[in-house]
Amino acid sequence: KQLGRSRTETYSTNMDFGMNDRLTISNKLRRAVESMDSFSLHYQPQVDLNAGMLVGMEALLRWDNPTTGGITPDVFIPLAETIGLIVPIGYWVLREACSQLKAWEDKVGDGLVMSVNLSAKQLQQPDFVEMVGQIIEESGVDPTHLCFEITETTALGDMGHVLSILNQLLNRGIHIALDDFGTGYSSLSVLNQLPLRTIKIDRSFIRDMHAGSDHIAIVTAIVAMAKSLKLHVIAEGVETEEQKQILKDMNCDAYQGFLLSRPIPAEQFEDKFLSH
Ligand code: C2E
Ligand code: CA
Ligand code: CA
Ligand code: CA
Q: Domain EAL: where (predicted)?
């Protein structure tokens, strides 16, 4: 009964699929993963608030399927996780992001960090660290130019195991960022248990941050706490100049958001941010 109930809930939140129900989409996803042709990565810039310089980019997966129309990652990623496809998809994402980073470094030199999102299911693969090592080697990128974004939910799965994997990745030089910070229920205890380099303040806090809003106090506290833990802080979802200015005044390190750019294809990213 429990299962039936959660299924119904999942379905009802995805009602706007129209003719495409979960089963149909799952089948399309299975077929799409065979060639990966209909997938691509978009990149969203991250800029240092103080220096105003580009410091890196986040790779975000897109699925372009003519028969399903645009299905957003918020919908197909959880589905891919459920039906076990996130593992092959995740390796493809990492390969693609690494080879893109290599191409950009060859063009503009290093100094950029490529961020890639990870799902819990990926970390659970027994050969995950080995596969990551292989992909890094094949692409020729410096692992210290890579950042894996995980969420609290990922971290909380099997803490002991997750910790061991994260430490192995860290030993190879890869940075770890805690994504969507502030949305979980045990954020604070996770902070000093995980080998984190960065936290990303969830966009729900940034969205409601304007003159006179309580969110300013919350974000100020998060930034101050992160600083005292020697963590790098990135604000997500910055959409207005006002939000950017408030974050700068707080000494937040970097920001990401539509104000700067939406996630865009590689060629566009290159034209806009890497060619001068
Ligand atoms: P996320 O990791 O929190 O990524 C940030 C999301 O916020 C992206 O949505 C991005 O387009 C959106 N965003 C960025 N700036 C703004 C802004 O200023 N305003 C608003 N309203 N939104 C903004 P997107 O690309 O649809 O991705 C949604 C989620 O799907 C991601 O959330 C991430 O959890 C997941 N995802 C995307 N690509 C991958 C992937 O390659 N692997 C895994 N495991 N998950 C992925
Ligand atoms: Ca992310
Ligand atoms: Ca996020
Ligand atoms: Ca998210």
A: 22-276
